[in-house]
What we know:
Elements: H1 2-32, H2 38-59, H3 72-94, H4 97-104, H5 107-118, H6 125-142, H7 153-172, H8 179-201, H9 210-236, H10 239-242, H11 248-261, H12 267-291
Helix pairs in contact: 1-3, 1-9, 1-11, 2-8, 2-9, 3-7, 3-8, 4-7, 4-11, 5-6, 5-7, 6-12
Amino acid sequence: xxxxxxxxLIGSIWMIASMAAFTVEDAFVKxxxxxxxxxxxxxxxxxxxxxxxxxxxxxxxxxxxxxxxVSRPMRIRVLFEIVGRLFYILAxxxxxxxxxxxxxxxxxxxVVAGAALVFGEKVGWRRWAAxxxxxxxxxxxxxxxxxxxxxxxxxxxxxxxxxxxxxxxSRAAPASLSTPILGLYGFLSVVVAGVIFSAWxxxxxxxxxxxxxxxxxxxxxxxxxxxxxxxxxxxxxxxSAVTPFRYVRLLFGVGFGVVFFGEQLSFSMLLGSxxxxxxxxxxxxxxxxxxxx
Length: 293
């Protein structure tokens, strides 16, 4: 029991570190988006992350390509990765970082719903109710039909759905694919998203300044560190023990938005955040209780 508790503690620390690093990545990307086209940011960010993960894979003497890389789950994963990355980066570029981060926290709710619909996992009526309540929290934040509603807020919603699809596809991905390989092709998907958006936007690239280059380098390093810490967390402690700490990203995201970007918090955002977090934690608790039976 002591060993399990220690593993869960270490896994939780890795998860908190991962969420902090993801928030740093988001902040650097948002800062860079004030100076560079979004498509260019995606391409540079994707190439940088892919290079680092490729180096890590080669260091571990792993082949960069195997037939499993082009398996059906991986193809689906790449598609959802493109959608998630593109629309979420658009969201943090064009909308407040705090609101985009809060909406992203609904991802676990969609993952649980998708696991029930796609993989046939058993989800009782209580968890279905919690999923619907949590999604209602997203509606509270977005506030469709009101004067304050902005279509730009739907960018974060689409990005969240893309990440949920990626997580579901990752569960079906071949077990032979290691974290560096998954990271490599995940970041290559970001490059593809950047190329597609650049072709659609038709905006010329800009030579980055020294400051912008530092922002991009910081985003790449933070992104790779965040992904690595996340995989470490999921492989160290019990999933039910470390997953709730995903929600600390909300605190980091809101804090960064307020402190560094001068964003204001509305009552609807705070209420929606509380609804999403409580629903997510309830689903995790019910899932753990069901597993114990």
